[in-house]
Amino acid sequence: MQKGNISVQTENIFPIIKKFLYSDQEIFLRELVSNATDATSKLVTLARKGEAKGDYSDRTIDIMIDKEAGTLTIRDRGIGMTEEEVKKYLNQVALSSAQDFVDKYQDDASIIGHFGLGFYSAFMVADKVEVVTKSYQDGSTGVRWICAGDPSYEIGEAERDMQGTDVILHISEDSKQYLEEDEIEGLLLKYCRFLPYPIRFGTKTETEYKEFEGEVAEGEEKPEPEKIETEVDNVINNTDPLWKKSPADLTDEDYKAFYRELYPMGEPPMFWIHLNIDYPFHLTGILYFPKVSGKLELQRNKIQLYSNQVYVTDNVSDIVPEFLTLLHGVIDSPDIPLNVSRSYLQADTNVKKITGYITKKVAEKLSSLFKEDRQAYEEKWPDLGVFVKYGMVSEEKFYDRASKFALLENTEGKFFTIEEYCERIKEQQTDKYERLVGIYTADATRQHTLVEAARDRGYDVLKLEHAIDAPTIQTLEQKEDKLTFVRVDSATPDQLVQKDEEKENLLDETQQETITKLFTDAVGTGGTVELKPLDVQDAPVQIVRNEFMRRMKEMQMMQGMDANMFPDSYQVVVNANNPIVKERLLDVEDEATRAENATYLYQLAQLSQQLLTGADLKAFIDRSMKMM
Ligand SMILES: Nc1ncnc2c1ncn2[C@@H]1O[C@H](COP(=O)(O)OP(=O)(O)OP(=O)(O)O)[C@@H](O)[C@H]1O
Q1: Residue 80 maps to a domain
Q2: Predicted model pTM
Q3: Is the reported ipTM for this assembly greater than 0.95?
Q4: Residue 586 is part of which domain span?
């Protein structure tokens, strides 16, 4: 054996590799199996070109544990290395790329999936690494290279028949878990599940039951099926994952089966998109639309990112627009730079193009579903809506496409595109400033009374009940000319759509003052009182919340501010023209009864909006009982 030093400057790299990457130790296996895959691919290419002669049909990569020896071996049947190549690639190339990686990593540990540490990641878990290799080239002999985690190494001849490479890790004392079968199998399933060559991890027992096929004499029972156990290779990967295949060759069932392979516990997806692009970047993948309805948070981070079928990460938030992280599936692209920091990624031109491409494909798919079968699309809307709205709010480009197929649902359960809806309300709901006023409820059950009051006026009421609807409304108002929204409780029904009609007040000035005073006392600090001449049949007292003030408060609360900093601003509108107001307040002599009636009418208004609680609610019930 010859001895040598890898490099003088690298004295420190081993402890750094061990220490800095400790939390992500497990990636060593992905890096080494990737190298084995690359070495196999290189040989396959040479053989195809006729430059490597021999039978290279067995491309299996073996992962082997030897507990007694304390080693984990990664064996490939790939291109192998000559002694010169070992010196060049392991002592120089691999080392300098590891050095580069460590330098970058020390500056910013957010490198995606920690790709690029390469061969030297072995030293995260091993005290000593032994490489036994033989080049595919005629006349090559085996070579053994040993390095014990310091800059010195040994190199010499080794016995070896087959071309290819064994990387033997002498697992260190504090990484003993990597000698456990379950641990290794788990990592192989995570990182290597879709690699293009078979990854064999020992053997497994397959059990089969064979029915008795012979004659059974009358009166005799058929013998139990025979149990047949066979030892077969434990190949842990699917070498030909669905996203690599041509969509024309696949059926719906294939896509569903692949979804189950990815998420065995998941509900079946609604539909999917097969991505496939060669220029100006390479990208393949399948994105599935899950049923989202309401569960906005739970579903994130289900897209897996691969690079040439090697798993990288399931945190793709810097690679795809945020709203797309609600989708499930796989993206595979060798063109995403994986050894740069996450903040750099978003500025990368390839990543920008990829983002744009995926967004466009998603919009196209939704658009075709909408056009092909509107009814089926409407049925899916409860699950799709959250996703589409999220996209419209957060991605300008998506908005432009989605505004054609986004739907608005009204309280009758009918669906409209934005354009259709504007057309529908044009006549009734255009205000004096020529704005189209969309009236909505955030809770059709709680706001039932108000919804009905608006509908009685001939208005249409939209159901915008999800958390995503508040920002969606804001976006629609910004984007769509002359469209504005008001919630049913933001004004009295006659004022939801402001028109220039002034009603005559049936009370004289003294009467108006008396009424205003009575209600100001009844309401106290609960809100401001306004006496207005409304329709005779409009309720005597109504409570409204200014749309703008309410939105401000909601926004502040979303930003985590104290809710009490912005008290609710309620306006108590008293209808001067409702006959009850006159009869119960003005025509009553007794001061105390008048005050009591004012309070009672105010409480009725509170009750209709579920604002009456605590002691006030009890007082109201007591009084109602007495009246009975
Ligand atoms: N199993 C192997 N068979 C043949 N050559 C190998 C094997 N493992 C490593 N090598 C050689 O060593 C070189 C350095 O490996 P290393 O993993 O450090 O970097 P890389 O694979 O080139 O790049 P990266 O890991 O960043 O993708 C490889 O380019 C290859 O030439």
Answers
A1: yes
A2: 0.82
A3: yes
A4: 509-543+564-627
